[in-house]
Amino acid sequence: MPGDGMQLVALGGMGEVRPGDDLGALIAAAADAAAIGLTDADVVVVTQKVVSKAEGRVVDLATVQPREQAGAWAARWGRDPRQVELVLSESAEVLRWADGGLIISRTRHGFVCANAGVDLSNTGPGAGERATLLPLDPDESARGIRDRLGDLTGARPAVIVSDSFGRPWRDGITDVALGAAGIDVLADLRGTADADGRELHATVVAVADELASAAELAAGKSSGRPVVVIRGYPFAVPAGEDPGARPLVMARERDLFP
Amino acid sequence: MPGDGMQLVALGGMGEVRPGDDLGALIAAAADAAAIGLTDADVVVVTQKVVSKAEGRVVDLATVQPREQAGAWAARWGRDPRQVELVLSESAEVLRWADGGLIISRTRHGFVCANAGVDLSNTGPGAGERATLLPLDPDESARGIRDRLGDLTGARPAVIVSDSFGRPWRDGITDVALGAAGIDVLADLRGTADADGRELHATVVAVADELASAAELAAGKSSGRPVVVIRGYPFAVPAGEDPGARPLVMARERDLFP
What DSSP line would sit under B153-195, residue for residue? Predict the structure, then answer.
């Protein structure tokens, strides 16, 4: 298709990621194999699942001792009490105990999501006996990948660590940014003029979430393509200290739906 | 960038859209001017604003008589009582009267958003004295554009009508699909196997919302590029009757945050 535009290419062939793996090196090699020379102007979106695996955020369910509350909830809804225990231990606060057994909670990072990001799918061979947890500090994860890509390739693209979240009022999940490095995750268009020369109001765009969503489309699910390179999106690099993806987490006092 | 991937190109040069304009013809001409031959495999994302303008969903604020409640709320927060009146008349139900004057409501379509989609920005020359309202039936809008593109170009791409919505718990707006034609807006991956051969659970992806978000990035705000063509995303065409974007609106009885 002609014209300046955005392009997204999914990278695969990285194999099963294991604890201790050098994810930056795996991404650099996958980009190389795809004949993609990464640049500072690219955005590299990496799914949380492989970040968690590389960081060893994988739990053998046989080692989990469910508390009484977890056992009761699991029994009521036919869920695995060990998974429920992990959800509770990953949560700072439960917002809803929902019909069907779903738990909506606020994680220690401040993310509001289902089951605190604890996931039994795509956890590797023998899956079902292991669960992945969210990275302890997804911004640190993104910074680590960005630094490692810089060392290996000389390019420092923006890096986003993504995950799939549900949301109120709308069906279906969309991918959002859990962590980020080298990109302003919000684009504040307030004060810029619109096409009529009128000042725009309340137009702060969650560009890192939109980039994560775009990457989800390019990757597809379950395709063994956990990394997507986005080219042609003119993002801003943080001027001072990089706040990562924290600006996307709404301050609780501003939240109308606590 | 080499490799099979997704590509997004924004179309501009359509000028100011006015009530009665033939939006399908304007899009076909813009694609032609950009040397883009539309195909059945493309997704055309059109912002709500130009759809509303073409459909005459533009209100002269001088004609609006605010009810007492609208006047009181406007006075309290320094807002235009006529805009508040429009928000209330576009709302089926107000969910939150928020500090700062923001009204979160459910529109008659079932969308939960700020100010019922009533917008004073980008309404054309002399803006500030006019407001745009959401299309009465965004799915019908999308179908109309798709049919017209089919007549003019022979191609029947998927069409999405997009708008920017805020959301709880996360800062920043993201674009979502208000209306759709020729595309399954949810991709239900339940029952497909993940990379480990394990069945995926609860993986219904709101692909039309993700496509709208991706298009927002490619268009940029206030750039006079209200249409984006997305190529390389393998969407599904509805097998039977096209439900449009309605499957994205969560049934109230399933909503945990009413």
Answer: HS---EEEEEEEEEETTEEEEEEEEEEEESS-SSEE-TTSB-T
End-to-end Cα spacing for chain B: 45
**Residue B177 and residue B161: Cα distance in Å, rounded?**
6
Element spanning A70, H or E: helix A68-77
Nearest Cα residue to B164 out of B88, B221, B107: B221
Q: Are strands A58-60 and A91-97 parallel, antiparallel or unpaired?
A: unpaired
pLDDT band, residue A1 (cuts 50/70/90):
confident
Taking only residues 169 to 228 of chain B, the set having a beta carbon closer than 8 angstroms to any beta carbon of chain A reads 169-176, 185-186, 189, 192-196, 198, 200-207, 209-211, 213-214, 216-218, 221-224
Locate the chain A residue with the closest alpha carbon to B178: A170
User: Quick one: which of A218, A139, A141, A251 has its CA closest to A185?
Assistant: A139
pTM of the model: 0.95
* Residues sharing a CB contact under 8 Å with residue B239, sequence separation 6 or more, in sequence order: none
How close is the nearest chain A Cα to the Cα of B169, in Å? 5
pLDDT score recorded for residue B195: 57
The tokens for A27 are: 């991404």
Q: Is B202 left (phi over 0), alpha (psi -120 to 50) or beta?
A: left
Residue A6 contacts residue A233 (beta carbons within 8 Å): yes
- Please, are residues B220 and A214 in contact by the beta-carbon 8 Å criterion? no
CA distance A141 to A24: 10
pLDDT score at B255: 82
- Name the token pair of B105: 């409501």
Q: Which amino acid is at A78?
A: G
Instruction: Measure the CA–CA gap between A31 and A10, rounded to whole angstroms.
Output: 9
Taking an 8 Å cut-off on Cβ atoms, the answer to whether A36 and B209 are in contact is no
For residue B122, CA distances in Å to A173, B21, B59, B78, B129 come to 30, 17, 13, 21, 11
